[in-house]
Design a protein that fits this description.
This protein has helices at residues 25-52, 58-61, 64-93, 98-101, 106-127, 134-166, 172-189, 200-221, 224-238, 248-276. It is 72% helix and 0% strand.
Length: 284
Amino acid sequence: MEGAKEPMSEEQTPVPVSTLPHDPSGLRSRVLRLLVIPFAIYFIWMIVTALFEGDCRLFRDTDSCSIIVYTVFSCIITGMLVPVYCIRESFVTGAVNMFQIGFMPARRTFFACALTGFFGYMAMELFSPFGTDQSASGYSFLLLLPTAIASVMVCWVLLGTHVQAFVRSGGPVISIAAGSLVTAWLFCITSFVHSPPVNAQPALAGFLVLGLAAAIFFFAVRDIYASSIFVAFGLTFVMANRIGVSGTQEAMPAVCGSALLAVITLIGIHLYFTRNFRTVKVPG
């Protein structure tokens, strides 16, 4: 009959979708979103930090104006606000959620921060690199708090969670190990831009130990506020010889204001994610 369809030969049999060649565009998109962009933000943060701190002896000279400028441009804009763009896109694709980036309910955050602050204070009392000068310890903690918040935001909230998302198919052990090791080394590299040390090897070892401890702490506790306190106490120890405490009274208003501004910015980011994204638990 005219117009009747001939039976399909073997050559004409449709190939199942699962046997078609894999389109690499999806992998390229994941590499771009989860690795290339986060690492680009990390390097931009490093460059800005080196420009505003680096060899400027910012923490040693304690110039009030320089501290505020460094906090605004390096810690807040580059280290906190710029990563929000990448994290927001990852929320949309489902790569990360509120729990993974460390924004937890207020009650849990309060207890995590209280315990972290208590043990950090006890460690400072027992092993303070400033001896019995408690004012110097408190000054150094506040001075380094914006840097700690930016470090946690870039190294763990951004890079750590995105590296984990990229290797998530390998299982939780590989995911956590990869996230911890990669971010610890990236955090360690920052020791060369945070007022470069005279003796590089001890400084590198100190930052690496702190980076590994901070990575384990963040991925175990999953609280960005408590992790920032943890890193701030750790930086107070490993950077004690790079902080000038002679002009603390003159610089204290700028130091306190910078720390408060960084904390307020972090709370604002938390509120932004809370109002725009929500993590829903699916019953097992």
